[in-house]
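WARN retry 2 of 3 for item q-0093 after timeout on previous attempt; input resubmitted unchanged.
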Amino acid sequence: MAGLSVKHLVGIKELSKEDINLIFQTADNFKSVINRPIKKVPSLRDITIANLFFENSTRTRLSFELAEKRLSADIVNFSAASSSLKKGETLIDTVNNILAMKVDMVVMRHPNPGAAKFLSEHVDSRIVNAGDGSHEHPTQALLDSYSIREELGEVKDKKVVIVGDITHSRVALSNIFCLKKLGAEVMVCGPATLIPKYIDELGVKVEYDLRKALEWCDVANMLRVQFERMEVNYFPSIREYTMLYGLDGDFLHSLPNKIVVMHPGPINRGVEITSDVADSDQSIILEQVENGVAIRMAVIYLLAEKIKRES
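OK item q-0093 returned
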């Protein structure tokens, strides 16, 4: 079996369609593993993985950790808050010190766009990007497209609208790259102030009216507003944003078409979607969480296979 064409997973932009399909096929096998009584396989008993999270994370960090444990890898968890970075140590020095302990792979979340790419060019280890600022979040995009494939049979020719804070969202950018590579039609929807100026270059449709967007789509991926990345106000109030771009049960059921609702989390319930939408039979949010473990197992396994072949 041919492996991945890349040595690192720094972004969806670097992956081919064949890479994505290989990750999906591998995830299919791992889904059966995580749904059986004994949820571990010995695939990576000789691999050590360091999880470096320089930004707060709950779901992504736990999902990666669980994926690593399911594959029987040894794990080192690193917290930036209690690290020597606080004393002025550089990122490369910090990582090289960790690698000196014979770590094979680094899963990293960092607030600076391009941090994962920078690291992949300067350290001797496989790098998996768990989110770099407002740039990319490749495993989230993979699990989102994988979840659409699982729910609707395939991604090709499906109409997917990404709603909300497109400007500050690494999830939006990675999703656009992934969905386009797999042949989906993509639209973004949100306030004009939260749609980036370069969006036309990505080959996606733009819609400012939520009803029109939802009547067009098969799938709606509802993003939260990234208040932590905003230095100015991009809209008058949360209440106004919710009135124009929030999805509640009445709105959902008034649509002439039955759509699939997704959310990368964490959900601001009552802002971008209400609880009755998040918990409805049209929502696949919990399926996304389960698929996240399988996709991350697949990514880690395939990158580790390249380590073994090259050693």
